[in-house]
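re the bet — no i am not wrong, look at it urself. input seq straight from the record:
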Amino acid sequence: MPQPIDLSPLQRELDNLRLHLCICNNAGTCLGCQGVDMLRQQAQMIVSAASQPVLLQVAQEAQAKELLKQVQEMQERLLRDPEAAKALEELLRYFQAPPDDTTNH
């Protein structure tokens, strides 16, 4: 799994930029403060979005493995049950392809 992204260097640079652009004494009301806050939010959204597909893929893969494990366990239980094995055999016989008729007419 990838390491979490450390945004602290970017946050420090944004804080420095805010000091240079701010004209409201850090009240958050000027365009400089609001712009830096918007950049901060966008950076967090980008990092979050960029790491999301990997997390979703891992979660989906884990769910698929768990489902496969459950199906295999169910198959093993069915095969241990003589009545279920007989029913499965009859079902497979029912769904078998018809015999191939290769005789020339």
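see?? The CA atoms of residues 63 and 69 lie 10 Å apart. told u. also The mean pLDDT is 81. so pay up
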